[in-house]
Design goal:
This protein has 125 residues and is of the alpha+beta class. 26% of the residues lie in helices and 47% in strands. It is built from three helices and six strands; from the N terminus they run ααββαββββ.
Length: 125
């Protein structure tokens, strides 16, 4: 799970939509500021993240931090993970939370479902 989240941050740090989608499985569902969407084609998922990366670049994306708030196994091959995020931009920071359902496929965790919701970043020092 940590490896997946680190890959996710690294892909966003590079603003590379093709890398971002590598941590998702298809089909997948995402509920975020863009609305509720279900993706069955990689090209549509890449397009969604290409638009997100463009917006982040325009806002002066500096980096992202995450804190795993909780996780719960849903059997051997699924995991529910609640994450607090802080995205640093040129002139501000955005804090939010996301609830993920991960699926283990071929010995690696992939995101099946993302639900973004309001919340603050929790720093554990």
């Amino acid at each position: 799970m940590e490896e997946l989240l680190n890959q996710y941050v690294s892909a966003f740090d590079q603003l590379e939509p093709e890398q971002i989608v590598r941590v998702y499985r298809l089909p997948c569902a995402i509920a975020d500021a863009d609305g509720v969407q279900i993706f069955t084609e990689q090209s549509k998922l890449v397009s969604k993240f290409r638009q997100n990366c463009l917006q982040l670049q325009q806002l002066g994306y500096q980096g992202a931090q995450y804190q795993v708030l909780s996780f719960e196994p849903l059997g051997n091959e699924q995991l529910l993970v609640n994450v607090a995020w802080r995205v640093d931009l040129a002139n501000a920071a955005i804090e939010f939370r996301a609830l993920y359902i991960l699926h283990r496929l071929e010995q690696r965790w992939l995101i099946y479902s993302t639900n973004v919701y309001p919340g603050s970043f929790v720093s554990v020092e």
